[in-house]
Design goal:
This protein has about 70 residues and is mainly beta. The chain has one domain: SH3 type barrels, CATH 2.30.30. Helix content is about 15%, strand content about 40%. The chain has one helix and five strands. β3 and β4 form a beta hairpin. It starts with a helix and ends in a 10-residue tail after the last strand. The mean pLDDT is about 95.
């Protein structure tokens, strides 16, 4: 699970993140961290829609290569 400190760094920098949810690259979510609580994270996508995702997913900077989540 991603820490509050990491999420806050992404939010303050405005860096685009990639959320890897499963082994299929087309299911990845890319966007900017907007807010979070104990179980969820809000990501604003480039089309300005907001997606609510579970904190247990893999959150990494979008510029880094894709890494599959550990099962």
């Amino acid at each position: 699970m991603i820490s509050d400190e990491e999420l806050n760094e992404y939010r303050l920098s405005g860096e685009k993140v990639r959320v890897v949810r499963d082994a299929i690259p087309e299911n990845d979510i890319r966007g900017i961290v907007v807010a979070w609580d104990e179980t969820h994270v809000l990501i604003r996508r480039p089309n300005r829609n907001v997606v609510k995702l579970d904190r247990s997913y893999s959150y990494r900077p979008s510029r880094e290569p894709r890494v599959l989540p550990e099962e």
